[in-house]
Amino acid sequence: MKSLNHVARSAKDSTRTLAWSLTRSGLRFLPRPDPSKRIAVLVHSFDGYQRFWSPAVHYTMASVPTSVPIYFASETIPYSPGRVEAMTTGPGTYVSRLITSLRRLESFGFEYVFYLQEDMWLTRPLRQELIDELMGMIESHEIDCLKLGKQPFVDDMEDIRLNSGPIGSEEPAEDFRWFGSHRFALSHHVSIFRIRFLLESAYVARLFGKTSPLDQERFASAYLKPRIKTESGDNKRYRIAVFSGEPVVEYVHASAEGRLTDEARNLLADDPEIDRIDPMGLLLTDD
Q1: pTM of the prediction?
Q2: How is residue 144 annotated by DSSP?
Q3: 7: three-class secondary structure by DSSP
Q4: Of 9, 114, 126, 226, whose CB has the highest number of CB atoms within 10 Å?
Q5: What element of type H or E holds 43?
Q6: What is the mean pLDDT of each run of 10 residues along the chain (287 residues)?
Q7: Dist CA 240 CA 156 (whole Å)
Q8: Surface-to-core class of residue 107, CB atoms within 10 Å of its CB (0-12 exposed, 13-18 middle, 19+ buried)
Q9: How many CB atoms sit inside 10 A of residue 284's CB?
Q10: Gap between the Cα atoms of 85 and 267, Å rounded
Q11: 9-14: long-range contacts at Cβ-Cβ below 8 A with a sequence spacing of 24 or more?
């Protein structure tokens, strides 16, 4: 029985590896990005969470420099307050809607995406100089994903600091480390992704029926975990990096199972600008 189970696992692993390899190869035929369009912010949501849209956009616009385009992806209801560009994906699974959004950004010429969901509310402005420094580091070290927020891998941070090497010796690379073989190699929480890397993981997850946010994270992370750089000199394929000290981006995780978290309530209650937020869908209660 053990032998049969081993054979079945080996066959499953081989199939998954082949699917990943073919997907990665296929993405190479997409048009090259526009060098002038380095990065865009994507706030990704669905129509059922309209109650979170206004504060999500409010805090995103307050934190992101005007030089960085912001796109808001919903299903059928376009939402484009202020300088935000609306993007509709149509209904479908989370992964299918993510793929549609990322392909749209690719068609616009972008190579990288700063990915947020509607319940990730930024609480500290990002300086243009910081974004420029991070993008320079990402490009020079060919990073696939740069984790900027604290969740959900915070329990692994001490081990990452002890056992993973720095990206480089220059600033700001000396303040970031390779993620190495740790949990949640792929997480949707506040990261800058190379769009084709995120597309790669989404396409393969959909192929294997892992189409919810958590299922995609777990499925992709299980594959990526042994294949992520731990030291600059190793030959691992995937380049995922994380802050070494404090999180670079501060944010509030605003919902749990569709309900406002206490930290989100406190943020809204203390915000002197709250009366200026478009009231569309904003609920300070869960009624």
Answers
A1: 0.90
A2: S
A3: helix
A4: 114
A5: strand 39-44
A6: 56 80 84 86 96 94 96 97 96 97 96 96 95 96 94 84 92 93 92 96 95 95 95 94 92 89 90 61 42
A7: 14
A8: exposed
A9: 13
A10: 25
A11: none
